[in-house]
Amino acid sequence: MNVAIISEQSMKLQSDIDAGIKSLEEHPCSICRQGRGEGPRDHFHGSDWGKCYKMILFDCLVGKKEVMTPQKRSFLRDGHLHEESIVSALRAGGRKITGTVGNESSFNFTANTPKGPVTFTTIVHTDGIIDGKAGLECKSVKDYAWKNKFLKGKIPETYYGQCQAYMLKHRMLTWFLAVKHRHTSEILPPFEIQFDKEYVQKKAMELAAVTVALKTGQILTRPKSKLNKRDSECLYCNYKDQCWG
Ligand code: SF4
Ligand SMILES: [Zn+2]
Question: Which of 31, 114, 133, 215 is the most exposed place for a label (fewest CB within 10 A)?
């Protein structure tokens, strides 16, 4: 019978792995990586388009100070590998996918609010464009989201909003969301998402309100849709205690 040995050498390797993970900083975008995130964040990320606007305001105020454990960092990096594997499979299956996973670009958007136009920047990371006609976003998810969301045909709003931001940037009307199970590696038929003008207008007004609040130091009230702190987005929000008191 083979006996698994954890030797002194194993422990040295382990400490190199830990040091390596620590050195591989995970930043949401190149501006945050360059340190402009030290103060309040002055730009949005594609995923912000689908989030609670009060959470985005808190995120922007916290800037780069958000604590990220080595495990969380490693988990995010593994996610990118899963995403790349979906793109490779599609390419091997004959699809022309242009771009590289996580390719960064940005766009400015001007929202015409009742108090005048407000312009803000969004940084996006596109996973690919399929046959030059539609976009592709890949996600690898845990069992809970797989069973309770995707197998039931439900798309979390964060992903929906992110795909809308990508369509705005690339001037496309269709985006596919390909989802892979983190543990079983099963991949669902990609969900087709259409450009949703009404949703985009609503989110743009919210992001404009966050932009103004960041400049004026105003604190926004909770969205009307958040009825109590057991709302699924509030439950996992870093600012739950601050927000609900
Ligand atoms: S606790 Fe809920 S309402 Fe408050 S910021 Fe977080 S998600 Fe938004
Ligand atoms: Zn950033």
Answer: 114
Asked whether residue 40 carries a pLDDT value surpassing 90, the answer given is no
CATH class assigned to 47-244: alpha beta
- What's the pTM value of the predicted model, to 2 decimals? 0.91
pLDDT reading at 37 higher than 80: no
Q: Give the integer Cα–Cα distance in Å for 179 and 127.
A: 13
Q: What is the pLDDT confidence band of residue 66, given thresholds at 50, 70 and 90?
A: low
Dist CA 62 CA 47 (whole Å): 17
179's torsion region: left (phi>0), alpha (psi -120 to 50) or beta? beta
Distance of CA 56 from the midpoint of ligand 2 (Å): 12
DSSP assigned state of 25: -
Taking each helix axis from N to C end, the angle separating 197-216 and 157-170, rounded to the nearest 10 degrees, works out to 90
Most informative mutation of 56, 57, 239 for ligand 1 (most atoms within 8 A of CB): 239
Query: Following DSSP, what letter does each residue of 28-80 receive, concatenated?
Result: SSHHHHTTGGGSS--SEEGGGGGS-HHHHHHHHHHGGG----HHHHHHHHHHH
Closest C-alpha among 18, 14, 59, 30 to residue 233: 59
Please say if the pLDDT value at position 234 is more than 80. Answer: yes
Q: Ligand 1 centre and the CA of 152: distance in Å?
A: 25
CA distance 62 to 225: 24
